Amino acid sequence: MSEKDMNLKKDAKDEQLDSFRVDNDGQKLTTNQGLKVSEDEFSLKAGERGPTLMEDFHFREKMTHFDHERIPERVVHARGFGAHGYFEVYEPLTELTKAGFLQDPNVKTPVFVRFSTVAGSRGSADTVRDVRGFSTKFYTEEGIVDIVGNNMPVFFIQDAIKFPDFIHAVKPEPHNEIPQAASAHDTFWDFIANNPETAHMMMWHLSDRALPRSFRMMEGFGVHTFRLVNAEGKAHFVKFHWKPVLGVHSLVWDETQKIAGKDPDFHRRDLWDAIETGNYPEFEFGLQVIKEEDEFNFDFDILDPTKLWPEELVPVRKVGKMTLNRNTDNFFSETEQVAFHPGHVVPGIDFSNDPLLQGRLFSYTDTQLTRLGGPNFAEIPINRPIAPVHNNQRDGMHRMTINRGPVSYHRNGMAGNSPSTSTPSEGGYEHYTERVDGRKVQARSESFKDFYSQAKLFWNSMSDVEKKHITSAFQFELGKVQRKEVRQSVVNLLMNIDTTLAASVALKIGVQLPEAGEETKNPTPSDSPALSMMNTIFSAKTRKIAIIAGEGFDQATTEVIKALKKAGAMPEVVSDRLGPISGQGGQSIEALHTFLTSDSLLFDAIYIAGGKEGVNLIASEPDAKDFVREAYKHFKPIGAVNEGAAFLQQSLAIEDLRVPGIVTARSTEELSGFDNKFVEAVAAHRFWDRKM
Ligand code: HDD
């Protein structure tokens, strides 16, 4: 069977969903009672100009359903987008865990993934500065496993009891519900300043990681320390990672703000299109493993969710791969109704005492009771396990299952005590028998009190460009904070991380630079190259290239398009009008966009075709020059040949086109190596040393 056929073959989850799918094609319209409807445009009235009659049951039913179409959005992570796929483990992980789906490389476990932003409402823009959620539901034969993570490896707080406070601070302010999907406001920064355990995550949040180019180009982290337990009962501490095969990439801040207006669905469209065009997003599954006996051998507490395990100290072992290969049939039924829970585990996966994780174990079922309207949400098709479900839970709102027989209690004699429990060797879940001793206390552990060393580690690990972006992110965010005392407190806090950073920020936001910060611990190691996005994977694959061409474009264009496609890039033609346009040699390309319907913000690179006639048409478009200038301003690769190069020069108003990331050809000689050079530039993504 070919790889394609394998992918097309329905997995167990897909088959299960089949029994719920409904197609209306060629069907008769009916009421919910199955009655065929003869009229769906006019309600029943007493006389043509008379009042509507209550007995119009179809009107009543249709309107009632409509009136109740909305459910509460998620209290956090309201805006999200999901897709189906599968997971394969590379080799049996028997030495670490007895989890069945991590044993056999020939098993494809169906998955559903939902990516999200945190703070914004369901209708907010995709490209805001925010943490991204990265939730994966594995439909394993032993039951559901959920990894409910983020695209950043640490969190703002250490104890779940502070979660409502933190979320109240970051969400729009309650008196006027402003600002939407933004952390650049007083209450967020007041929380940061008064809760210094946020320092490390604050650095991540202000970094380019908060501006992903695509959901396909983000890392995912389980954040907490979990346990894997093998068949002998031996446990290891682990952290879960998702590593995108395309590398980790970001947008630039100016771009994200403008995209939020031009295409608020930028990330969901990107994911949808990638799957529709067969560019299936792939993420390798990674594990960091620490032996139980090494628990105290680090200069941070491995239970503290504001700390990462530097990859240079604890390497990430890649143990499997997830491929997303199927879009949803219905957003509401699948993406909106999916319910994740970090407590959904199978034998071989267990928890740690991380107090943030412990609190999450309560919250996720609880929130679904309001959001999905009762305790039977596990019966909603997207949430059903593929493993059989038998227990004595009964009734409640929207019960689907018809449980037969008089017995709904354990222990019973009447049904031979079934459904019966399973021993661990039969697959029954057994909690890890960790020994716990201690007094009941409400306090922060001493080992959780180092707030700054890993914030410094993160800062030290950034390249100059990344540092520049973080600095201007602070200048922007704090620049929006109205209360001077809040701005001052954040700069005081920054002094504990890096003086240069604190000074650059203080300068722009009208506050004093304190003489010194607190005495704080330095990290070991002092930096971690794995944290810089400069050390990620770069390629031209799936990068979107705007081919700017008008009627009468030159021959070279067809070759450039071919070369880009060969490298896996996605060239799309932008012209003065939609539809087919012809080149000098009679070749035809289809324009999918005009300067009105698109913008270079929505592309990774641009190419300007030559050909006098075509370039004249493009040049007469009022928005064409801005299109080119924005690409230049955002450090993107720009290719241009012959008259196209002249138009580029005109648009940028610069004398010399020998600028990083600009590839031009104005002679037959230059044209010969052009395609390769341009593809190389596309694969490099951005040219940060371009002078503005
Ligand atoms: Fe949470 C949703 C991730 C801490 C309470 N969380 C939610 C989602 C993600 C995360 C990805 C969206 C799930 C989806 O797509 O449906 N949350 C995290 C991470 C955390 C974290 C990585 C820290 C490491 N969360 C956290 C705490 C609490 C919650 C400490 C409360 C004690 N989170 C929730 C919630 C949500 C949620 C209120 C809202 C919707 C939902 O659960 O299903 O229960």
TrEMBL record:
Sequence ranges of Basic and acidic residues compositional bias: 1-26
Cofactor(s), by name: heme
Any Pfam family: Catalase-rel
Segments forming domain Catalase core: 30-418
Transmembrane segment boundaries: none
Region Disordered, annotated ranges: 1-32
EC supergroup of this enzyme: oxidoreductase
An MF annotation (GO) of this entry: catalase activity
PROSITE patterns according to UniProt: CATALASE_1, CATALASE_2, CATALASE_3
Enzyme Commission code(s) on record: 1.11.1.6
Protein keywords: Heme, Hydrogen peroxide, Iron, Metal-binding, Oxidoreductase, Peroxidase
Catalysed reactions, semicolon-separated: 2 H2O2 = O2 + 2 H2O
Function: Decomposes hydrogen peroxide into water and oxygen; serves to protect cells from the toxic effects of hydrogen peroxide.
Homology family: Belongs to the catalase family. HPII subfamily.
Identification of the protein by name: Catalase
Organism whose genome encodes this protein: Paenibacillus gallinarum
Organism classification: Bacteria, Bacillati, Bacillota, Bacilli, Bacillales
